[in-house]
Design a protein that fits this description.
The protein is an alpha+beta fold and 337 residues long. It has a 7-stranded mixed beta sheet with strand order 8-10-7-11-9-12-13, sandwiched between helices. The protein has a 4-stranded mixed beta sheet with strand order 3-6-4-5, with helices on one face. Helix 2 runs parallel beside helix 3 and helix 8 packs across helix 10. The chain is globular and about 65 Å long.
Length: 337
């Protein structure tokens, strides 16, 4: 580390915050922002959606990956915003504010922290919740970097789309990408040097480090009459089983429809000796949406049909089928994996 590089312990908390605050946008819904003991945010709908998520160094990301990629503060800030914005999206809502807790070693470069704040703002701006911004948060000292974000959102008068509304005969559809973030993770963990990756493979790394949840799709699904919906964060089959369990149904996936998501991943799979379809079925962190819609409803823009909802006609077990055959619910589990 260059001797002249400023690190966190060189500044007071107030001095560090003074470098962060100007990098955060301020939306009209933030009535009282950073600087007091609590923020004051508007709730024009009269109801509030709220969710929280955490990223921890060496559990959810590495500062230095095996293939040579170095995770920037911008990456961590972007991903922290994206995964929380996606949770509000999955309820059919729109995010209105975030509060952020950042814990880090005192040796963390100040530039990394500034980049983190830039990543938060850039993700909010690029992904589309135009009335959302960071309302405040907390800084702390720890042995590793950990980021916790709580997000607040509005339903704008719509009913929330929950996991328990799927019915037999409904359509099964997905918005966003499948398997790209998992392929990116595999490339990051591989021995293939980052600099040798073709543009299409480097884009997969970006999907892991800076996911692109389809934030217009959640409210569109709610307006179209979606019966159930969730964020695909832990893998299509694992999250699909959660929706099936909540609704008391079977989700039957169409393998031909799923194959379309695997085809663009074949170059990475060939390079790594992996199975592209396993990324589609079990890979999380693309933060797309899995939703069900009553039969006859035209799917809103951004959604693709990938199967159907069936009644449970056998003893309880996995609620997932592929072309009628039982499928293992592979995917990410924070405590088992």
């Amino acid at each position: 580390m260059p001797a002249e590089q400023l690190i966190v312990q060189d500044l007071s908390e107030s001095e560090l915050l003074a470098r962060i605050f100007p990098r955060l946008n301020r939306s009209p819904g933030i009535l009282l922002g950073p600087g007091d003991d609590a923020a004051l945010v508007a709730a024009p709908d009269g109801r509030t959606l709220i969710s929280i998520d955490t990223q921890t160094q060496d559990q959810d990301f590495r500062l230095q990956w095996n293939n040579g990629y170095r995770t920037t503060g911008f990456d961590v800030g972007w991903k922290a915003a994206a995964q929380n914005l996606s949770d509000i999206n999955a309820m059919g809502g729109t995010a209105t504010s975030l509060v952020v807790s950042l814990t880090m070693p005192p040796s963390t470069p100040v530039e990394w922290v500034e980049s983190f704040a830039d990543g938060l703002t850039a993700a909010i701006t690029a992904l589309g919740p135009i009335d959302c911004s960071v309302a405040g948060g907390d800084l702390g000292r720890g042995s590793e970097i950990a980021v916790t974000v709580a997000v607040v959102g509005s339903l704008d008068g719509l009913a929330p789309v929950v996991r328990s509304g799927a019915k037999p005969g409904h359509q099964l559809a997905v918005a966003g990408t499948l398997g790209r973030a998992a392929a990116g993770w595999a490339l990051l963990e591989s021995d293939v040097p980052l600099g040798s990756l073709a543009a299409e493979l480097r884009a997969l790394v970006d999907n892991q480090c800076r996911p692109l949840p389809p934030l217009a799709a959640g409210p569109a699904a709610a307006r179209a009459g979606a019966s159930a919906m969730l964020d695909i964060s832990d893998g299509l089959l694992r999250d699909g089983n959660r929706l099936a369990s909540a609704s008391g149904v079977i989700l039957d996936f169409d393998p031909t429809a799923l194959k379309a998501y695997a085809v663009p991943l074949e170059p990475a799979a060939t390079l790594l000796g992996a199975d592209a379809m396993s990324w589609v079925l079990g890979g999380g962190e693309d933060h797309g949406l899995l939703a069900t819609f009553p039969a006859g409803i035209q799917l809103p823009e951004g959604f693709t049909a990938i199967g159907s909802v069936q009644a449970v006609v056998e003893p309880p077990g996995s609620g997932i089928r592929i072309a009628g055959h039982a499928a293992d619910t592979v995917g990410w589990d924070h405590f088992a994996d």
